Fold these 2 entries.
Entry 1:
Amino acid sequence: MLRIPKGKDQDAKDQFESVVQWLREARSVALGEGGNDLEDLRREIDVYRSLRDRGFQNPAESAGFARVGAAVPQTLSLLPGGKMLEARSLLSTEALAMFEERVRSLRYFHARNLPPTLNHQSEDGLKIRLSHRPLGRLGILLPQRGMAVSLLMALAVPAQVAGVEDILVALPSEDGGDPAPGVLAACDLLGIRQVLVGGGSKAVCALILGTPETAPVDLLVGEESERARLAMLELAGECEVEATDSIGDLCILTDGQDVSPDAVATELLVHAELGGPGLRALLCSSESFLDTTLAALDRQYSFLKRGHKSVVRRTLEARCRVLPLRSLRRGVELVRAIQPERLHLLVHTPHKLLGDLEDVGQIHVGQEAAPSLSIRDGAFFCVPSGTRGRIPTPSRFLEPVTAYRCGEQLQPDRDRIRQAWREFETH
């Protein structure tokens, strides 16, 4: 039986704030990352650093291995380019055309959001120019579960629009074989020729510290697992890192009228199976419907495959919150306070609430607009949305460059301006 935290709505203002804090805390819970896990991860990173410092030669003789008592790690290798062409040939013409159309739309969207070049000339003739240049080398970490293709588009396309040409992708394989053909085909269509096969902390080490075949990246973005996220934090001093969360939050606000408890339970299960650090919240003005939904959740959970059960249980018990509400209006107040990326509105009269929910990233109204459908489709995850901006824009992949030009054009009153400024700074 799942042990999902259940709260209680409060009347007083300070108690309301405590409920909001209780909901927000679900985003910061770490899953299975105790002290032993952290120490084990640090030993693994030390081993990989030692291997890198020796130029990836004679790893078994490295002093680092003897010091930490760890096994010799296997560095990740690049996938042959023919594998991506082969994966592309497996897709239908219709699927390829759909992907290319989405990429074109996404490029157009991001091209309109590039930061402009700014020029300014001060009174004393100083010319200032602010421009931008792309990062040198980008690493993208993709998950095995979830929307790997959509996340790849969301990260690679704005980087390419910004001018980044050198992109290295790491993604886990399926049962020790090659990665999913759809992701490999997407890499080929996007012009990405470097793909490392592997996930978790090994992939993070390979991207940030390099491999015998690849150089370290300047910026690492993406998501894969809790251990990978922790490894990114541990190696943040080596390069810039940014752990994304394409799944984000899911908040379900319902009154229980003409709503299927099984459908609500399915939404929570789908979102939990994808993982990610986001909040899963079920806010309901009917406590009896809430209890029925929790029973349906337990029943559906029992039919999951063993490997999926562990992910779903850890996610739901740590990052899911259920809360009976005094009224739907109270639920609107809570939603506005926690600001989820995704809200599923299942109420009898949604038009009465929509006007107060304009700052929510995505709103799905009714059972026919279930978030799980858009999650599987991936259509909404390629552009930044929500209040916390989880997906980067082209600006993230650009470095500002400021150029100064002095003395090209002397103003008649330049000496007067200089004298006034010296007087200002000395008093």
Entry 2:
Amino acid sequence: MQFSFTEDQQMIRDTAESLVARSCQMTEVRAFGDGQSDFVDALWQDLAKAGFNGALVAESHGGSGLGMLEAGIALEALGGALAPVPFLSTTAVADLIGRLGSDEQKSRYLSKIAAGQISAAIVGCPDPAHRDENGALRGQWAPVANAESADLLLVVVADTATGDADSYSVNVIEDIKDSCTVETFDTMDRTRRGFGAITLTGAAGVPLAGSLDGDGYARLGAILAAGSAVEMLGGAVQVLEMAKTYAMERVQFGRPIGAFQAIKHMLADQLVALEGLRSLVWAALWAIDNAPEEAPLAAATAKAVADQVALQLAGENIQIHGGIGFTADIDAHLYVKRVQLDRLVWGPPGIHTDFLEAHLEEMA
């Protein structure tokens, strides 16, 4: 395993961080949450021009031909800035189309994804759709990221006709609002809009040419879990930096509050927890690219720990800020709300801890 970024990966990281710092400033994020700004399209195009939207798209289809680790570098930067773009769902869709699509399907969708011309949503992992007795797709999911604005919806469908419990098909739906019932709703995280509930009401869509076996389904779950975990890592890094900076600047009884033992110990514990999470997250992203048989366990572990650590740091950041930390003027509450939503998307925390528990029982 590579324990540090390569020179190329470090360059990608520098590019991602500078792009996000320039195109996704907190003032814009706050204004977007208040409905007073719509900078998302510009940010989406900047990501596409830098090659990030096509991280998992082959160069032959206009992509960068990179891997999930490089996509994770972008996700960490986006998570730290509370970016409201559907990067993870679109990246997962691009990977599925690239692996299962026909030549015509790849040509139809992948170049547009890489160019930032379309975004995508995905449902069915976990909880795949099923077919009724008439062959129509049925299923319901919430909350679904990018439900309102997606140009493509990919639906993972359990293929019960084969009698194989680990056989799935993947259907592409373009006319989403005509084929499904989409009920959008506000979440506690106002910095991201467009979440909703999707109900399939007999939609068929067009199946990708290839079928999804158990290993492919596990890869998809790992991409979503590890991708969400690295976004949460990015937020946790920013939260710790906020807490540390405030503890050094805020003076009480003639001393910075960071000099008091209670605050010092809290920050030290946060750093230990953050570094542990960082190791798990990058191990999971590396495994997706290099050790696929290890990826499901590594990704589930990373997401389960991220659900705990990111929430811990976000909550304690408010405590360190004291009374002002509870006000809307401080960015601390934005990170708490983002973490709470991230814990629910792509499967609630119980799914990942249950997976780990089952794995431990198998080892016993």
